[in-house]
Amino acid sequence: MRFDSKNLLAFVIPVGLILVWQALSSLGQLAPEVLPAPTAVVAAGWRLALSGELWANIGVSAWRAGVGFLIGGGIGFALGLANGLSKLSERLTDPTIQMVRTIPHLAMIPLVILWFGIDETAKVFLVALGVSFPIYLNTLHGVRTVDAQLVEMGRAYGMGNRELFFRVVLPGALPSIFVGLRYALGIMWLTLIVAETISASSGLGYMAMNAREFMLVDVVVLSILIYALLGKLADSIARWLERATLSWHPAYLAH
Amino acid sequence: MTARSLTAHGLAAFSPVAQRQSGGATRLGQGGTGATVTLRGLSKSFGVKPVLRNVDLHIPAGQFVAVVGKSGCGKSTLLRTILGLETPTAGDVRVADAAPNVQAARIMFQEPRLLPWARVIDNVVVGVRDRSNQKAARAAAQSALDEVGLGDRGGDWPSALSGGQKQRVALARALVSHPRLLALDEPLGALDALTRIEMQGLVERIWQEQGFTAVLVTHDVSEALALADRVVLIEDGAIALDLAVDLPRPRRRGSPELARLEGIILDQLFKTGDRVAAEASGDALQEAYA
């Protein structure tokens, strides 16, 4: 990625906000128990990084997010493909999926705690549940809207089912699948934060809630900033993947 | 509908030409690579709606046949049935004395239908019959691209090509496997007039070189006459006119002989329609006076 003046423009507002925040804190306009200065947040980060507590919590949260995402995304992707390709499968499963989808998955938290307690399974289950629906819907939509003329061309040129899938259907569905992927990544972090905040004994959400108990506002702010960074990181990876696999798409033809 | 009697009329009126046309096909002397196509009593219905009614047609090997007709007359269905993309409701289709098989023939559609996510050369590879040997497939694709004059564009994405260039890639894809039958489903209909004339020349040249049997479906009568050995007019799902075009190639646009044949076809196409319209307006006048 090139860092020319256009890319630097994106940093003007965040850097400006931090400078104003620091200035207000230094002038005593912002009470440290309401919002500690950026330097205090950095100091808290340094302290927790040295003790290893920060890395352990980030690791636990990332593990939960990743495993939940793989399970939920895998199920959503598989069902989306199956229902996009087979009318029978769609008639059998789609109405049930659409019904379950209307339940806000976070409303399941009390039930999930009763089922799984507050250990890893509960968090992974909630993330997987939340992530599976956007992946499912967008994969299904992608497969459904593959250009029927291209499918007919493939058949007329003697492609079998397997070749038709890999050469025509999957590449055609990919832009839509990526929309689902990026949407799912947002839901993944949201679900994890809520689940960890309500019931956990480790992870970033637990670190923030624990700090609140002891009025460590700097650690609370630090946790929020780390969530933002992780979310941005996941989104950047998805965008990079998108650019790498959709280089044929006129929208990504920027050389 | 009097399609059967019109067929008889059409053949009777131009029988000297019709006899010459079989000689015209053998004159090419390339029948060895083309496939004969024979339709016997072919009918096709979608639900209760008949689209083709009892069509008999024999296309000798290497002949270039144009199928013309108004939209919805069944000419595309005829083509798709010859290719095996549709199964006939009744009757029999034989391509090179065998049942139609998607692998034996190749089709060019009205749209290029290139895979946007595959480079130009990989789009041509789709037309290679045995794609398991990648190296040979790519070599064949490259020579097909050279043939249509796009040999240097193999590495581009289809979105970087103009409409005419995309259709030339589609032609290369159709021809890369050296089909014995090439079906053309209005492939030039969406192109601008100048590109269309250029593409007609390209199709004619490659047909003369390779000697495949060609079936061109078009609604452009002058295009049919510029390219075909024989023009078949379809009306209401039946053959209404079967006209041999025994003129030397390359044909000069606007020659009196082409104009005469075009007049015959257009008369056949619009004659019945005009009479119905005249009768309808006559009825309206009588009602007005009554």
TrEMBL record, chain A:
- SUPFAM superfamilies in alphabetical order: MetI-like
- Principal localization reads membrane
Q: Where is the ABC transmembrane type-1 domain?
A: 54-235
Assigned keywords, A-Z? Cell membrane, Membrane, Transmembrane, Transmembrane helix, Transport
Check the record and name the InterPro entries matching this protein: MetI-like, MetI-like_sf
User: Record's Pfam families?
Assistant: BPD_transp_1 (PF00528)
List this protein's GO terms for biological process: alkanesulfonate transmembrane transport
Q: How does it sit in the membrane?
A: Multi-pass membrane protein
User: Is Lyase set as a keyword in this record?
Assistant: no
Which PANTHER family has this protein been placed in?
ALIPHATIC SULFONATES TRANSPORT PERMEASE PROTEIN SSUC-RELATED, ALKANE SULFONATE ABC TRANSPORTER-RELATED, MEMBRANE SUBUNIT
What does this protein's UniProt record list under function?
Probably part of an ABC transporter complex. Probably responsible for the translocation of the substrate across the membrane.
Q: What is this protein called?
A: Sulfonate ABC transporter
UniProtKB/TrEMBL annotation, chain B:
Q: Could you tell me which PROSITE patterns the record lists for this protein? A: ABC_TRANSPORTER_1, ABC_TRANSPORTER_2
UniProt keywords, alphabetically: ATP-binding, Cell membrane, Membrane, Nucleotide-binding, Translocase, Transport
Task: Supply the SUPFAM superfamilies for this chain.
Answer: P-loop containing nucleoside triphosphate hydrolases
Q: Indicate yes or no for the key word Transport.
A: yes
What InterPro entries does the record tag this protein with? AAA+_ATPase, ABC_transporter-like_ATP-bd, ABC_transporter-like_CS, ABC_transporter_ATP-bind, P-loop_NTPase
**For the ABC transporter domain, which residue ranges apply?**
37-261
Annotated GO MF terms: ATP binding; ATP hydrolysis activity
Q: Record's family? A: Belongs to the ABC transporter superfamily.
What PANTHER family does the record tag this protein with?
Answer: ALIPHATIC SULFONATES IMPORT ATP-BINDING PROTEIN SSUB, TAURINE IMPORT ATP-BINDING PROTEIN-RELATED
What is the protein's name according to its record? Aliphatic sulfonates import ATP-binding protein SsuB 1
